[in-house]
Design a protein that fits this description.
Layout (H helix, E strand, L loop, with lengths): L2 H13 L5 E6 L15 H5 L5 E4 L6 H15 L3 E6 L24 H13 L3 E5 L1 H5 L3 H11 L3 E3 L14 E4 L6 H7 L4 E5 L22 E6 L13 E4 L2 H11 L9 H21 L6 E2 L2 E2 H8 L6 H11 L5 E3 L4 H4 L13 E2 L10 H11 L5 E6 H7 L3 H4 L8 E5 L5 H10 L15 H7 L6
Parallel strand pairs: 1-3, 2-3, 4-5, 4-7, 5-6, 7-8, 8-9, 12-13, 12-14, 14-15
Antiparallel strand pairs: 10-11
Helix pairs in contact: 1-3, 4-8, 6-8, 7-9
């Protein structure tokens, strides 16, 4: 009795795309510490991967702890872990279910928002940098209204290409590794940067294409729901802890009359020109820019197999055929990272990327999950041949007759590309253990799993 009261908040969290629960069965409580079957210190193992974790200490506290962990996941916008000793799963308890206390997402501090609105109102070249918090808060439209009031270009954080509509005139693409040169050139000119729902993780601000683009003299406003992230990687002038959507609406409401008018025409013209110039350059790029004595990294592979496509050629071709409403997942490694500049979306929750944990083999299971969650939406996953080999056993599941159809694209370069690239560039071609067997045919393996393989 009452099990639906447990399930309902979990289902609600899932369907609202809120970070989920991590449920970890532990060794039986009475044998913990005796080296039982598969016993490890699971709390230590997951400590750095979750925003909160708690172990059930007694069967009668199961509902209490579960309720608290769910709420921590909501409030932290991140995974939270409940650890349950194995022998507790079989217990029958008679308890009163705990009260569910759902708090509103926090708004920005009154003075901090006032200070940020003043900086944005007086800026000559404001730039907005949208992060995952904009997506999680449902704040894309709110950020667009704020950008339009200022005519500020909007860049996206690394691997968050869906944090702003790519078709919007003010969208300039993602920063970070192999991102948008237009975004880099424009944020370099900023006198005020609004990092909205953004952790400012290092990968989103690393130099690219030879451009050290992070503006050294700009005023930085950082908005994040997690106060521990604010000012952690970059100096900030205004720190705002709050929900990205709510704060964007607060800022818009407090902009001064004439905000954004300084240099508005010149700024909008420059945005259009910079985007156009980058689009032309990107369409003509066939290979990576990273060089080793004038020879690109993929030049070696191309010389060995001149009839094969380079990753950039493949990304351009695939993006031109991609359904507009598709959900995309990508894996780790160079072939997927090269594609950072290509995916563009008009809605949030369309781009599933592995993030800074770099989980090798993420692409296939992620896109399977997307199809289960959104069965009527086309889905396309990407992975290199090394990463795909980590999780290709999932094909035995998606080959079953009752599973929805997905598309999985494998980039084959016959080596662990990221590792080989690093050793090729930095260790005088002294690479070891990076070659993959050219005799392995993933299409035939797919057929063996009941999946169409080409």
């Amino acid at each position: 009795p009452g099990i639906t009261n447990f399930v309902t908040p979990i289902k609600t969290a899932y369907w609202n795309h809120t970070p989920m629960l991590l449920v970890t069965p532990q060794a039986a409580n009475k044998t913990i510490g005796q080296g039982g079957f598969q016993e490890i210190e699971q709390m230590k193992l997951f400590e750095d991967m979750v925003c909160y974790q708690e172990e059930v200490r007694d069967p009668s506290r199961m509902a209490e702890v579960l309720n608290r962990v769910i709420e921590k996941a909501w409030r932290g916008c991140a995974p939270a872990q409940i650890n349950i000793p194995r022998d507790y799963w079989t217990q029958v308890i008679d308890i009163e279910l705990p009260q569910i206390i759902r708090l509103e997402r926090p708004q920005g501090g009154t003075q901090a928002v006032k200070d940020a609105a003043k900086l944005l109102s007086e800026a000559e070249f404001p730039v907005i940098l949208n992060g995952a918090g904009v997506i999680l808060s449902g704040g894309i439209e709110a950020s667009a209204r704020l950008a339009e009031a200022l005519d500020a270009p909007v860049a996206c954080g690394y691997q968050h290409n869906d944090a702003f509509p790519g078709s919007h005139p003010l969208a300039v693409g993602p920063l970070g590794y192999n991102g948008s040169k237009a975004a880099m050139e424009l944020i370099q000119k900023a006198d005020v940067v609004l990092a909205l729902g953004n952790r400012l993780n290092p990968f989103s601000t690393l130099p690219g294409y030879g451009i050290n683009y992070w503006p050294q003299d700009a005023k930085i406003i950082q908005v994040d729901i997690n106060s521990d992230r604010i000012g952690l990687t970059k100096r900030v002038d205004v720190a705002i802890q709050g929900d990205a959507k709510v704060v964007a609406e607060q800022l818009l409401a407090q902009l001064s009359v004439g905000a954004g008018d300084k240099g508005r025409k010149e700024r909008t013209d420059l945005i259009g020109l910079t985007k156009s110039r980058w689009a032309q350059e990107l369409s003509s790029m066939d290979h990576e820019d990273d060089t080793d004595e004038g020879v690109t990294w993929n030049e070696r592979a191309r010389n060995r197999q001149p009839d094969r496509m380079a990753p950039r050629q493949a990304w351009r071709a695939i993006m031109s055929a991609m359904p507009a409403d598709a959900i995309v997942s990508s894996d780790i490694g160079n072939n997927c990272a090269i594609g950072n500049a290509y995916p563009s979306f008009d809605k949030g929750r369309k781009y599933l990327a592995p993030g800074l944990f770099g989980p090798c083999g993420y692409g296939l299971p992620a896109i399977l999950g997307a199809k289960i969650g959104c069965p009527d939406v086309p889905v396309v996953g990407f992975a290199g041949d090394g990463a795909f080999g980590i999780s290709m056993n999932e094909m035995t599941a998606c080959g079953r007759g009752d599973w929805p159809a997905i598309t999985m694209i494998i980039f084959r370069n016959y080596h662990w590309g990221a590792e080989k690239r690093n050793t090729t560039l930095w260790f005088d071609d002294n690479f070891v253990g990076t070659e993959l067997n050219e005799g392995v045919n993933y299409a035939e393996i797919a057929k063996g799993c009941g999946v169409k393989g080409v």
